[in-house]
Structure formats: structure tokens, C-alpha cells
Amino acid sequence: TVKSRGRNGFDFFDPSMEAKSLERILMENELRKAIEQEHFQIYYQPKMDIKTGTLTGMEALVRWMHPELGIIPPNRFIPIAEESGMIIPLGEWILKEACKQNKRWHDQGYELKVSVNLSVRQIYQKDLLDMIKATLEETQLEPKWLELEITESIFVKMDEATIVLQQIRDIGIQISIDDFGTGYSSFSYIKSLPVDTIKIDASFIRDVHHNQESQAIVKAIVTIAESLNMKVVAEGIELNDQVAALQENGCGQGQGYLFSRPLATADFEQFLRKEQLGI
Ligand code: C2E
Ligand code: MG
Ligand code: MG
Ligand code: MG
Predict the structure, then answer these.
(1) pLDDT digits (tens, 9 = 90+) for 186-196
(2) What's the gap in Å between 176 CA and the centre of ligand 2?
(3) Which of 3, 148, 230, 260 sees the fewest Cβ atoms within 10 Å?
(4) How far is CA 62 from CA 103, 106, 143, 187, 188, in A?
(5) Contact of 198 with 176, CB cutoff 8 Å
(6) How much is the CA Rg of the chain, to the nearest whole Å?
């Protein structure tokens, strides 16, 4: 084994540290290969108007289809893609794939909006706007059928983020704040943001049917959103009781396993056909 000399002169060897970094290196190599070989698939989760029960759009959620390990969920590799910078090419692939697919559905007569998650790292990518414009041009999807979901963590650099988001919005793309209520969120900055939709984090939805504090939070978010002309989406709806509580508190849209899990393309198409037939 290797012993290394620490900066402060102490000898140290931490096998767990070495093991971890080796795993990380392997993982990064695997991810790099996967990006080159396009070993990813986009799943789509329906977004519903909870008053009418109709479909309004879908969120694009990436999965890594590993040839030996099977499906790897985004929480396991998105953070590594972000830290290593690979989120830039991966994010571009995801956006193009989601726009291409949504354009196909539009050509089949389904007028749906696709929401794509954007990492903080992508927001501060220099040519983000050009990349988005080129993707829309190439896929021929109209900007109004695209929404980008960002999290509150981008507002660490509030001024920079605001400029980028404004530019994106100026070309007709919608912006949504994901996981609202968990991060740096505060009602004070929300008013100055170029944002169309607020997504209430699932942690407030989980107990909204029997917890008055969660109800109060939902109600407060809905009130603020209305006064700022923003829409509200509830995340992680699993129960009819939650839908009832959300309706009572004025929340208009929702997404969750109650309506559907995220679906592979073919399964989403089946969902679309059933929806069209009103089944
Ligand atoms: P998110 O954007 O907040 O997405 C919602 C997550 O909640 C998804 O997990 C979805 O499958 C899950 N979910 C939806 N409804 C329910 C429900 O009723 N109950 C429960 N327990 N979970 C529900 P997923 O697909 O594993 O994605 C996790 C996170 O990974 C996403 O959170 C997002 O932050 C990130 N992510 C996923 N796809 C992408 C992507 O294409 N790009 C980037 N940058 N991040 C992505
Ligand atoms: Mg999201
Ligand atoms: Mg979310
Ligand atoms: Mg999340």
C-alpha cells in the first residue's frame, strides 16, 4: 500500500478514501462511455390538470440504461455528471431527445408541453442560449411547447441567473422552479424572478391531506403565485386525499404516481391513447 505524506507533515492512509475515489473514477469512466454510446433513455411523467383530470404535459426524466447493471436512476449519476462537467454534453443530449420526441407527438396531434430539468451547471454554461436555440431549430419544436425546470440552488448567483433566464424566456420558452420550498427559496426573491411556474416540493404534498402546516404552506405558495401570475404544480401526488386537499387550497396542476409513474416512450404513447379515448 501507498503511504502519502500530508501537507502538515503527518503520514496518513485512509483506505476508505482511496476506495471511494477509485469507485468514483470507474463511475466517471463508465459515464463517459455511456454518453458517447448514448446509453440513456428519457422517461416521461404525465402532468395533470387536477380539476379536470386532463393531461397538460410531461416531465422528461433521464435514466441510464447500463448494459450490465440495468436501469440506473438519475440521483445516482446526475451529481457525478455535474461535478465532472459531463452534464454539459449529457444535458444537451437530453434536451434534444425530449424536443425531438415532443415534436413527434405534436405531429401526431398531441399538443403537449415537455418539461426538461436543467442543472445549475448548465445555467452558467456560456453558450446555453445558443445551444437551446439550435436544438429548437434542429428539432422544429415551437418554443412554447418547451419548459425548463430549474432548482432554487441557482439563485446563489441571483443576478447572473436572472439574466440567463430572462433571455431564455424572451424566445418563448417557459421556466419552472422545481422542488420549491426546500432550498434557498424565500418569498422575497420570487417576485423578481422571470418564472412561469412554481413546483411545490413533494415533502409538502406527502402529508398535505392531514397536516395543517403543509396545507398552510401550499395555500401560501398558491396565493403568492396567483398574485405574481404564476402557475402552481404539486409534485409527488400518490393519493386521492392529497388531490382533494390540493384542490381545496387552490392548486391547479399535479404530477405523481397516482396519475402515473414516469413511462418509457412506448408506454407513454399508450397512456396518450387511453387519455384520448377518455379511459
Ligand atoms: P425532480 O425533477 O424533482 O423529479 C421528480 C422525481 O420524483 C422523479 O424522480 C420522479 O420519478 C419522482 N416522482 C414523481 N412522482 C412521484 C410520486 O408520486 N412519489 C414519489 N415517491 N416519487 C415521485 P427521478 O426520475 O428519479 O429523478 C430524480 C431527480 O433527478 C429529479 O428530481 C431531477 O432533479 C433529477 N433529474 C432527472 N432527470 C434529469 C435530467 O434529465 N436532467 C437533470 N439535470 N436532472 C434530472
Ligand atoms: Mg423536475
Ligand atoms: Mg422536483
Ligand atoms: Mg428533485
Answers:
(1) 677 788 789 99
(2) 9
(3) 3
(4) 18, 21, 21, 30, 32
(5) yes
(6) 21
- ipTM associated with this complex: 0.98
Residue pair 142/113 in contact (Cβ under 8 Å)? The answer is: no
Give residue-wise pLDDT tens across range 86-107.
Answer: 999 999 999 999 999 999 999 9
| CB of 221 closer than 6 angstroms to any ligand 1 atom | no
Q: Which secondary structure element, helix H or strand E, spans residue 3, and what is its range?
A: none
> CA 215 from chain center: how many Å?
24
- Tell me the helix, strand and coil percentages in the chain, rounded to 5: 50, 20, 30
Q: Tell whether ligand 1 has an atom less than 6 A from the beta carbon of residue 89.
A: no
Distance CA(144)–CA(60), nearest Å, equals 16
**What pTM was computed for the model?**
0.92
